[in-house]
Amino acid sequence: LAQSDESLHQLVREGILVADSKMFEIVKRFITSHASPNGYVFDGYPRNSRQFDGFRTLVKKNGARAAGIYIDLSDESVKTRLAGRFEFKNQRKVKREDDRSEVIQKRLTTFKQEALPLKDRFSKEFRLIEVDGEPPEEKVAGQIARELNRITNAS
C-alpha cells in the first residue's frame, strides 16, 4: 500500500503512522471491494483506540468475524529482526528506509503507548491469539498459519 502512495511511503520512512481516518477508509474500501469467506489479515491494524472503535463498527456492520494475533516479542528481538530486513530496488538489495534505529525506537514507543493497551479490549470483544515471537521466524510463521487454519476451518 505505502509503495503505491508517495505520501504514505514518506510517512512510513519517517516512522509516522498513517492518520486514523485514512486507515479506516483504506480498510473499509478493501473489505467492501474484496469479498472473502475466510476473512482478511490486516498487519498492524487497529493500532490505537480510535482505529479499534472504527474497526469494531465496521466488523459489526458487515456481520464479519474478527480475530487478532498478538506476537509477543522482546524489544531487543524486534530491533534485531527489523535491522536485518532488506528490500530490492533496481535489482539491488538495500536496507529498508523505515528500519533505521531511530525509526524503530519511535515505532516501539508508539506501539507501547497506543497499540498494546488494545490487547485487553480486543480479547474481550473478539478472539485474540497470542503467539510467542521469540523462536525463529519460520516457527512463528508456522504457528500463526496453524492458528489461522484452525480458525477458518472451525466455521
Overview of this structure, please?
The chain contains seven helices and four strands. By secondary structure, the chain is of the alpha+beta class. The strands form two sheets. It has a two-stranded parallel ribbon. β2 and β3 form a beta hairpin. α4 crosses α5. The model has no long low-confidence stretch (mean pLDDT 86).
Which overall shape is indicated by the principal axes computed on the Cα atoms? globular
What is the number of helices? 7
Distance between the termini: 30 Å
Largest sheet: 2 strands, parallel
Strand order of the main beta sheet, please?
Answer: 1-4
Could you tell me the strand content as a percent range? 5-15%
The ordered H/E elements are HHHEHEEHHEH
Poorly predicted segments: none
> Share of helix among residues?
40-55%
Give me the secondary-structure category: alpha+beta
* Rg over alpha carbons: 16 Å
Number of strands: 4
**Averaging pLDDT over every residue, what do you get?**
86
In short:
The chain is of the alpha+beta class and 155 residues long.
Give a topology summary:
Blueprint: H1 6-14, H2 20-33, H3 49-61, E1 67-72, H4 75-83, E2 86-89, E3 92-95, H5 101-115, H6 118-125, E4 127-132, H7 137-153
Parallel strand pairs: 1-4
Antiparallel strand pairs: 2-3
Helix pairs in contact: 2-3, 4-5
Question: What attributes does this structure have?
Answer:
single chain; 155 residues; alpha+beta; two-stranded parallel sheet; globular
